[in-house]
Amino acid sequence: MQIKKEMKMADAIHRNYLLLPVINRLGIQLGFQDKTIEKVCSEQKVDVEFFLTILNAFLDTNDKLSKQLQVHSVKDVVAYLLKTHSYYLERIIPEIENRINLLIQHSQLSKDEFLLVKNFFEEYKKELYTHISLEEKVVYPYMIEIANAYHKKELSQSLRDKINSSPVTSYEKEHSDIEAKLFDLKNILIKYLPRPNDSYIRNRILVELFTLEQDLNDHSRIENNVLVPQITQMENTLLAQK
Ligand SMILES: [Fe+2]
Ligand SMILES: [Fe+2]
């Protein structure tokens, strides 16, 4: 069942607590009382339709829902994605890193075993940072440039050259490597480290990794299944016009 604007904001969280960071990124903070989604959004000056589309696309991975995002502006979708990048870099990754550092103090891992996890995590982090930086410096500005040109119906020669040399689809493949690395990192913790006396810290790291994975999947789905087809269609329209 989809989330609707008549629903109480608190009930959306009770339905799926993983929506908490999603709601924060959209500009809504806790302390909803019994107010409906519509009321909270209007009080906190958030576009309720955009809010509902993002939440419903997170809860239901059916592509039809994410496609509804295409009625919203590329700029709004990109602004939301930028906030999720900051959330990963400033909150989630440092938190997982802290927990990994606790592994050496509170588990019976040898130095080598600890370093295996630590180095693997470092590699994952590096790859994620590189990916995010490419998107923020190159891909998102390009998408916004295309959307602006599309709305103005004006294509400069330099933008025409860019579309021909690196269309938006040329950035699409990137995500699978990051997903594979995260999957491997989880497996080191689940399968390959020796059995601990107490699994608590390892479990906590795994919960963080699974949560990050779900959030990242939603994020990449918006990039690949919403923005890329939308920008491709704009590129084609722009190239077709005289
Ligand atoms: Fe991204
Ligand atoms: Fe991405």
Strand content: under 5%
Tell me the count of domains: 2
* Structure class: mainly alpha
Ligand inventory: fe (ii) ion
Secondary structure: helix percent: over 70%
Kindly provide the radius of gyration, computed on alpha-carbon positions and rounded to a whole number of angstroms: 21 Å
Query: Could you tell me the number of beta strands?
Result: 0
Can you tell me the residue ranges where pLDDT is under 50 for at least 5 consecutive residues?
Answer: none
Distance between the termini: 46 Å
**Which of globular, elongated, flat, extended, rod-shaped describes the shape?**
flat
**Helix count, per DSSP?**
10
Order of helices and strands: HHHHHHHHHH
Overall mean pLDDT:
91
Largest sheet geometry? none
Structural notes for this entry:
It contains 10 helices and no strands. It has 242 residues and is an all-alpha fold. It folds into 2 domains: 52 residues, no CATH class; 168 residues, no CATH class. Helix 6 runs antiparallel to helix 7 and helix 7 packs parallel to helix 10.
Compact overview of the structure:
By secondary structure, the protein is an all-alpha fold. The chain is built from 10 helices and no strands. The protein is flat and about 70 Å long.
Features:
binds fe (ii) ion, 2 domains, 242 residues, 75% helix, 0% strand, mainly alpha
What's the topology here?
Elements: H1 9-15, H2 19-25, H3 37-43, H4 48-59, H5 63-67, H6 74-106, H7 111-152, H8 157-165, H9 175-192, H10 200-240
Helix pairs in contact: 6-7, 6-10, 7-9, 7-10, 9-10
The structure holds fe (ii) ion (2 copies).
